[in-house]
């Protein structure tokens, strides 16, 4: 058997790491695959989950008016008391019988659970330059915390990927979900400075879409070429399934000059994403 050159081992290792990380998603973003266990709901239910503790936390630590146009989280300034408040909120969410809520309450529940857990993950590993450096399960080649089962709802262990790709995306089938869940990165849509509720979700989803689409990290013209967030590449199936479908989606939220660029664009499209931590 022919011996492999020493440099080849290094190349294979780099390839393996790239495929595992692949800019985290490049090797294949998670598909929306319904977890039927979470279809249960009660259309007549009137119970409302209390998200006020999460709203108070967000109002204290999210810089929604940052000059960059990207909301920032002041992780370094979170007090021990406020972190305990956040942890208590997550404990309260895990005690909720979510299958007994109506659909609007469920949507707010899952979005807030995802975002609050993400912030708690960052706080638990801070200082850290990127969420991709966090590997709670210590899994080989894992880059990021998304597959680790980090909490339980109704006795079922869940990961962040479960919440986003097996519950939120396949049940609601709404591309705006991507503007609601936040991955603690500069390339991600803004973490809103208030909790989602059944009453405000539509407003926040539309706000998140407009903020992201009209910011350069969402869509921009660069040296004559349209550059979009990699979200529109990774999850193209949610945005019309083709690049033209993506452009139609973007046009629905684009304003000013960007709208004209998108509506008449027929050139090549590039994609990028910044995984740097969304702190000031």
Helix/strand order, N-terminal first: HHEEHHEEHHEEHHHE
Mean pLDDT: 92
Report how far the terminal alpha carbons are from each other: 55 Å
Output the structural class: mainly alpha
Rounded radius of gyration (Å): 20 Å
Descriptive overview:
The protein has helices at about 5-20, 50-60, 80-95, 105-125, 160-170, 200-215, 230-235, 245-255, 255-265, and strands spanning about 60-65, 70-75, 150-155, 155-160, 220, 225-230, 270. With about 280 residues, the chain is mainly alpha-helical. The chain has a domain at about 35-215. The strands form 3 sheets. Strands 5-6-7 form a 3-stranded mixed sheet. The protein has a two-stranded antiparallel ribbon with strand order 1-2. A hairpin with an 8-residue loop joins strand 1 (about 60-65) and strand 2 (about 70-75). The protein is globular.
List keywords for this structure.
three-stranded mixed sheet, two-stranded antiparallel ribbon, mainly alpha, about 280 residues
Short structural summary:
This protein has helices at about 5-20, 50-60, 80-95, 105-125, 160-170, 200-215, 230-235, 245-255, 255-265; strands spanning about 60-65, 70-75, 150-155, 155-160, 220, 225-230, 270.
